[in-house]
Structure formats: C-alpha cells, structure tokens
Amino acid sequence: MDYLHFSLLDEKDFDEIIINAGGKRYTNNPKIQEKNCDYILDDVVIELKIIEEEPIEKEEKQKKFIELFPAEAQTVILDPTEEQKNRYYKILETPIKSALKKASKQLQVSANKIDAKLRIAMIMNNGLYMVSQDEFLKIALQRTKNDTSGIDILIVCSMHYYSDKFEMYTLFEFKDYEINKVKYQNKKQIIDKLRNEWNKRCEQYLTDQMTKQDLNRKKEPIKDLYFESDGIRYIKPIIQWGKSSEFWINGRPREDTTKEYDVPQILIVPMFNERSYEYVKDNIVDNKIMQKSLNDYIKWIKNNPLNSKNKIQLVIYIELNNQNFQNLNKPFQINDIQQCANLKHKSICRKIEDNMQEYSIDVDDKSYILVDIQEIGQDMANDITSISHITNNTRQEWLIDGQRIKYEYAIQLAISFCIILKADNVYYIRNEDFKWK
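Above: the chain sequence. Below: its structure as tokens.
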C-alpha cells in the first residue's frame, strides 16, 4: 500500500480565493509585478507569500544544526531544550523572515500608489514542516512585529497532510492578527470574505484530491525529516497527529530501511568438554575439523574471526555434552553438530527472553544486562540502542553505546551478551516518546 500524494495548493488557488471574494490581481505587468503586491480587494492591498523551503535540506542550515545539537549517539533528535530554542528558531525563521520583509515593502509601494486603506500580508506554510502549526504562527507573528512596518494585518494559512497509508488527516488553518491598529470600518468584512473563500477552496481542494485523476500530485504526506553527516543521522521526527489508529491495532506501521551491514551478526559455535569432544571426534565423518586435541580446536576456533562486513559481530560458544547428541545417527556430519548447538542456543535464548522484564529501580540482580532502546520516528533504522553489563548494581560496563539498532536486534544482542557474560537476566527500557504511533 502506497501513500496517496496530493497536488500543491499554489498561487492559482489563491487567485481563485481573491476573485471569488470580489478582488483582483494588482497588475499583470511583469515589469512592475515584482515590486508591487499581488491583489486588491476593495481599497485593501494584499500580498501573498507561500513558504515551501525546508531548512533542513540546505547545507548551511545543516552545519548550524550540527553545532547546536552535539552528537552523543548515531541518531540525534532535533528537539530543542529551553536553552536551545532561541537559536533553533533563528535557524528555521529565515524563509519566513525574508518573505515577510519583502511583503512589507511591496505592500507599502502599492498602498501609496492607490491610497489603500489597509495592508494585508498572507503567508502560507506549504512545506516548512520542521515546525508545528503553532510554532510557524509564533515565528511569523514575531517577525512581522519586529522586522516590518508595512503590514497592518497578518493572515497565517497552512495545510498539513498526514497519512499512515490507511487513514489520512488534513489540517487547514486560517488565522488573522492585527499588527497595526488601523481605523478602517470594513476590516472585519474583508477578513471574513477571505476566510469564507479560503474554507470553500479547501473543501473543494480535498474533493479534487479524492475524485480527480489528472492532478499533478507532488505533495507527499509529512514524514520524518533528516540528514546525515559523518555517520550521524540528525532527525526531526514527524509531529504526532490525531488519535491512535483504530485500523493499525498494534500502532501505525513503521518503515525499516536498515542496511544489510547494520544487521548484527551472531555466530553460534559448537564447544565441547573433554568427553563430548572425544565422542564427536570418534563419530564424525571428517574429523579433521576437530583438530588434534580440544585445546587445538579451541585455539583454531578463536583464531578464525568472522568474515563479515557487518558492523556488529558476536560469537557465542555453546558447550555441548553427549546428551545433546543422543538423537544423532552415527556417523554424523559437522552440520549435525552445528544444528545441536543451534537448538541448545535457541532453548537458552527462549529461557532468557521468558524471564526478561522491564527495568525498574527495584532490580537487585548481582549481574544483569540492561538494554535501552529509543524508538524514533517512522523508520526503525532511526532507533538508538545502548547495552550495558551491570554488576552489584554499581559497576556498569558499556557494551554498545548509542548505536542505530532497532528493537528486535537490540533484544537479540542483549540476550547474546547475557549468554556470553553469564549474566542472570536481561532488563529493558523502551522509550517511545518520539516514535511514530
């Protein structure tokens, strides 16, 4: 199932809104169009600015994000603290600030020419989704008040489209703010006309998306926004919307773009005691693989590293005794021995997993593995895992620290470390604060 793409709300839609409200284009002369406003409605001038720029896509902005959010893991969430917010919004505000400053100048020029009684700037968010609707509105309002003098009324419009491939959720917004207290008796009527026509156009727009086949569908639903630098992923997870899905009963589905080399490789190696070693050596078809002695076998096994490009590689030695071979027909193959080791490993893993619990401060095991997974956004490849071995509730040895590993693999690794280090139990912390739900 694919996402449904929408067409873009663009200037032609606003042309229709203004015309239906009783207005018109200020001019169609390209020579003076750039310096003047877009529309006239009665004795009011209106300038439209559509914001489609996403700052995270620009290299100079990425450098600022990297500076603002020091990397402590392989995924960095662009979620500012109170101390960071001022700098964060300054990075994001540039397209809004530039658009409003230009609108102010255009409105002043046009208003002077026709002696307009009111100057309205309309700013439409059609692509800056690193901020919520409220954040965009706040930035636009601040920049209008602080950086412009030619805007009397600010109208903030937006369209946010979300989808989980089954449900779709579309939010339209039209809010007006008085910047300069201008005495103009038709002020409310003008704004109401614009709002009513905006609402009508939005309704028609949604109908068109569902019924028309010939639309230029470029607008995707809002998704995670991210870039990568030096192996670190900097991400703005999708802002949560609506309520929990009634269709996806286990939560909205997440993508999994985990690369093959990011999948942890766990190798199960048969190991023996003296008695089981002799038994296998006497009954295996080709006993050369068993070497001359158990010590030689152990040295040979440990001196042959994994031939793998995977970033995380673990070797688990599973000690077998004669009882593990009781169902094998003699002579047996090395693959039969490997299968015995795999079955014993599976049984050990199942027991550890059955006893695995969510971590709490009441844990008092002398030796345990703690796995902390932070699930982030719509893609499991964003998720961060840290695994440590804790002894006597005081000493913590980091085994994996802040690596991109999804939940399923993180649990496998934690169980594997539990076996290797002979720990008592595995405890987990599962942070879903920024997970797509």
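The mean pLDDT is 93.
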